[in-house]
Amino acid sequence: MKSGGFAPDGRLARADLFLQTKFTYAGGQDHRLPYDPAADVATQVRQSFVSSLQHLRTDYVDSYVLHGPSLSRGLGDADYAAWQAMEDLCRAGLTRFLGVSNVSLDQLQLLIRTAQIPPRFVQNRCFAATYWDRDVRELCAARGLVYQGFSLLTANRHVLRRPELHAIARRHERTLAQVIFRFAQQVGMLPLTGTTDGGHMREDLESATFLLAGDEVGVIEALGAR
Known about the structure:
The chain is α/β, with parallel strands linked by helices and 226 residues long. The protein has helices at residues 41-56, 77-91, 105-114, 134-143, 157-160, 163-172, 176-186, 198-205, 214-222, and strands at 20-23, 61-66, 95-101, 121-125, 146-150, 189-191.
């Protein structure tokens, strides 16, 4: 179903959902490998994508993400093969956008230069120690890419103990998580959360209902930075 609004039985229509999934190399998979490990990378991408469509019960996804380059530095032959296969899926209308995750600034710059269809989404684990991935965020802003920050809380537990952050939370009468997610939005991130708790989901969404002052944003951005 691709029409907007609610279905007759009250469920959301497909067009009201944004579905994003990933292709992951074998080294990052568990025993539930969604492709033939002996196949070439392009075939693995296609097989993994078909598996995702089946599990999500849809005929297209909104964003298909390369789950990290195959190398810690630069891009390898596998990455170029995977990206070309992902571009084919995009051209076929099976995914609306492409993305990449766990990527460094240099890797992202290289991918942008070499891709025929550049990434629209960049999904990184976001560490306060690097000014919340500021260099990658700045490139995304300059290129019109959507930066998706994940592990904003779990990767920065030391920051959550800082008295400066607690003072900001008390000032706004908000939770620490709400302050971090509000900060993320104000510096141009789309914050991701993996919570399955309904109460936490509501709290997270309420982070869009208040604003941090400019000096508060500056304090949080510098917390934990090397």
